[in-house]
Each structure stands twice: as structure tokens, then as C-alpha cells.
Amino acid sequence: MAWGLLIIRVIVGLTLIGHGTQKWFGWFGGYGLKATGGWLHSINVKPGLFMAFLIGLAEIVGGLLFVLGWGLPYGAALIVIIMLGAIITVHGKNGWMKANGFEYNLILIAIAIGLALIGPGIYTL
């Protein structure tokens, strides 16, 4: 069981860190802070640049807490908040299992809440 929890934490956490670095630095095919901020502003998430910074920060910190297992409930809370925001602002209107739908966000919410309830396992800091 401990290895399974570690695998889930590391893969989910690194994926969120990757999404945060897409927003901040444009890594992994992302657009960087300025372009992400402009896009957020265009969908009425204002102030766009500041929100891009906060969302990227929450993804990086939440992902890091998830990977390390230290402060897992806080990392999980950040993930849930980010994914709910993504559903409300972008993906919810597209439905479930449709193009650009909210199923990915929902899976991450389920994983975050599930691990927060189970705990990080023995392989943590």
C-alpha cells in the first residue's frame, strides 16, 4: 500500500508542478505568466496576471506538498481549490467526457481528497 500511495503522490504532484511551471515560465509547451494572465483576463478572471501568478504558485506548492507527503492536506486543499476554479471558469460548461470537459479536474479532486483522508503513507518527509 505504501508504494502505491507514493506512486500516486509523485505522479499527481509532478504533473501539477508541471502545470504551474507552464503558467510561470512557459515550460512544457506553456505560455508563461504574461500570456496566461492575458488569457485569464479575457475570460473575466481578473486581475489576470496576478491570478496567473497565484494559480501557478498554488499548483507548484500544492504539487510539491503532494510529492513530499509533508503537509499533504494543505497540498490537497490547494489542488481542490484550483480544480474547482478550473471547472467553474472553463471546463464545467463543456460537460463531462466532452471536448475540454471537466473529467480531468474531477479526477484530480477525487485523488486529492482521497489521499488527504487516507494519508500520505510511510514514504514521506
From TrEMBL:
Belongs to the DoxX family. InterPro entries: DoxX (IPR032808), DoxX-like_oxidoreductase (IPR051907). Pfam families: DoxX. Its main location: membrane. It comes from the Bacteria. This is DoxX family protein. It is found in: Cell membrane. It comes from Fictibacillus barbaricus. The chain crosses the membrane at residues 6-28, 49-68, 74-92, 104-123. Keywords: Cell membrane, Membrane, Transmembrane, Transmembrane helix. It is a multi-pass membrane protein.
